[in-house]
Amino acid sequence: MTQPAIAIPEHEIVERFVRAAGPGGQNVNKVSTAVELRFDIARSPSLPEPVRERLLARRDRRVTGDGVLVLNAQRFRTQERNRQDARERLAHFIESGLHAPKPRLATRPTRASKQRRLDAKRERSTIKRGRGTGGRDWD
């Protein structure tokens, strides 16, 4: 069963062009090539409810407290390429919320693994016990 692709309408994406930081020669101070893309996850009608919940539940520093995803793209020297990069990253972020995580099945340790753990603890204990002063006389 494959998930249907989610299409985000243009009016839900807010783009702002700012001057990029870092190297770029004379151009860097004149041309606003970096892109700041904002997408409101919490209020987007395009996202199905389970996907929205999974994306908002992620602990991602790019998501604000209000549920707005903020992506900064300034890897490239042209505005168009940075814009494309930001949109690709948005698509990747949304795609990561499409798949529900597999539930963890609780398992119990085997008898052999318990025995190995206890043997390792006993071994460490013996090593540490041997580190004491032990009544040696260095005089």
UniProtKB/TrEMBL annotation:
InterPro entries on file: Pep_chain_release_fac_I
Domain Prokaryotic-type class I peptide chain release factors: residue ranges: 19-35
Basic and acidic residues: compositionally biased ranges: 116-126
Source species, domain of life: Bacteria
EC number: 3.1.1.29
Keywords: Hydrolase
Region of interest (Disordered), ranges: 93-139
MF terms (GO), sorted A to Z: peptidyl-tRNA hydrolase activity
Keyword Hydrolase among record annotations: yes
Name recorded for this polypeptide: Alternative ribosome rescue aminoacyl-tRNA hydrolase ArfB
